[in-house]
Amino acid sequence: MIFTDLDGTLLDHENYSYGNNKKLISRIVSNQNEIIFNTSKTFSESTNLLKELNLTNMPFSTENGAVLYFPKNRFKKNKNSSDYGRYWKIRIAKLSSKIWYKYLLKKQKTFKFLIAQDLPIKDLKKYTNLVNTSKMLNREASQLIIWKDSFLNLKEFKNDLKSEKDGVLIQGSRFMQISSICNKRIAKKLISHIYDIQFHDTYSKNTIVLGDSKNDIEMLNSATHACLIKNSSGVFPKLRSNKKNIYKSSKLAPNGWSQLIIRLNKTLEVKIF
Fold it and tell me: Which of 187, 192, 204, 245 is least crowded, fewest Cβ atoms below 10 Å from its Cβ?
């Protein structure tokens, strides 16, 4: 099982290109492996990319592990799942994006931050380099903000989130995400568990995780093989001190993704492709 972040990992951080990774992905999947998006992107953004990369039979996680989706053509209904078109959906994060938006409007009276949803389209395009920003704003269980206040006030804001709404702040490469408790490690664990139930541990004994930033750390720490993709800052996410099987790319995304998969393919006893 290969769990992967998208922006800055599988995709170029600036222009969102997946480069030559499509050919490699096809070879990986043809060899009976699973490629699972575990991303901060939304459902709309993810499904578009899944179609482009011919991965529509794979489950995936969106909004930093807030919501999970399982294709009905391969997965049975889970007791915690609801019907969502061609998917079974499991929402880990309790509160909706609408509730979070109302909460953030109130908190703007005390703290200085911008809500992505309220930004003029031209500003949002400048922040994201996206041609169409509507899909990234089509959120189910979270909101994105840009912090404009002090670090001290950020600590106070985090405390308010926790005490008032049992919420968390997840630091991404462009935005901070506000949501109920969720993260990519929890999403990975639940997806792996459902694979175990349905496919009797066929896939999840060994997991490869690829990521490039702070919101990937917990997911990377839980992997059998943790692949860190070089980012523009040159600083890799810091994993736990006793973590084994860490691999670091010398190339940025998207080439760093294929670089490490090819390296693992040469290293591992069981070949990936």
Answer: 245
The angle at the Cα of 255, spanning 254 to 256, to the nearest 5 degrees, equals 95
In a domain, 273, yes or no: no
What is the rounded CA–CA span in Å between residue 183 and residue 179? 10
pLDDT in tens, 164-194: 999 999 998 899 999 999 999 999 999 999 9
Q: Is the same domain home to 176 and 112?
A: yes
Helices 255-267 and 21-30: angle between axes, nearest 10 degrees: 30
Q: Which domain holds residue 171?
A: 97-180
Instruction: Report how many domains make up the chain.
Output: 2
At how many degrees (to 10) do helices 97-107 and 151-165 cross? 130
Note if the pTM is more than 0.90: yes
Q: Out of 180, 195, 220, pick the residue that ends a domain.
A: 180
Question: Which residues have C-beta within 8 Å of that of residue 209, sequence separation ≥ 6?
Answer: 2, 3, 4, 38, 188, 216, 219, 220, 222, 223, 225, 226, 227
Q: Quick one: DSSP state of residue 235?
A: P
In this structure, what are the phi and psi dihedrals at residue 178, rounded to the nearest 5 degrees? -110, 125
Q: How many Cα atoms sit within 13 Å of 174 on the Cβ side?
A: 19
Identify residue 231 by its one-letter amino acid code.
Answer: N
Give the integer Cα–Cα distance in Å for 228 and 220. 8
Give dist(CA 39, CA 229) in Å, integer: 15
Q: Are residues 83 and 191 in the same domain?
A: yes
**The domain spanning residue 27 has which CATH number?**
3.40.50.1000
**For 73-94, how does the pLDDT look when each residue is reduced to its tens digit (9 = 90+)?**
999 999 899 999 999 999 999 9
